[in-house]
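Fold sample X.
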Amino acid sequence: MWEIIAIAVLALLIFGPDKLPGLASDAARLLREVRRMATGARQDLKESLGPELGDMNLSDLDPRAFVKRNLFDPIDGEVNDFKRAIDGTDDETNDAEPPPSPRYDSDTT
């Protein structure tokens, strides 16, 4: 928040109060134009990919999102499978008593 206030004060001092509204409207116009161009480029890319890849989300191409989704997010049922493998049970419900916890030995810790 303080950075925005500092930038606004500096812009007011550098450009003056008479030129600042015109510069702000020019910046807003430029931002709208860049957004329009990005939307057009995204639509052109989806059209050129064809119908089989047209419904693909472009954020899926982000390498960070790909790694996070494939390495860190659990697959459906994966957590339960892992839990069953540790417990040694084959069914999803475990009616048996849990195994006893290991004894605490102060000499080894």
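Fold sample Y, listed below.
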Amino acid sequence: MKQFTQILLLAIAFIFTSCFEKEPKDKIEEVTMYVSHETGIYYGMLSSPVEGMLIKEEGWKDWESRPFQEISGFEYIKGHKYTLLVEKTTLANPPMDASNVKYKLISIVEQIPVGNR
């Protein structure tokens, strides 16, 4: 009987500690991002391929194509290249049909028109 009581108490303790586990939190950081003067093709999850801007975070080797509205508060102008300071939020619990990363413009560090535009 003593063993049963101990096992029961351990089970109850486990149940209570499981209920109080912390929810995962979003990771927020400031990053430098580069936006190319050229565009690419963006392949969305639920849409057909569309034209998008090419972005690269500091430290990335390759460019990635993203929708023009990917960075909240930023308006892309074709033919311009940018260096941006953005707030990058990596969502702990992202929606199933969306990216787990959100970008918000903090400031435009540099904007340079390229070519004959």
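Sample Y note: The longest helix spans residues 2-19.
Also: The chain has one helix and six strands.
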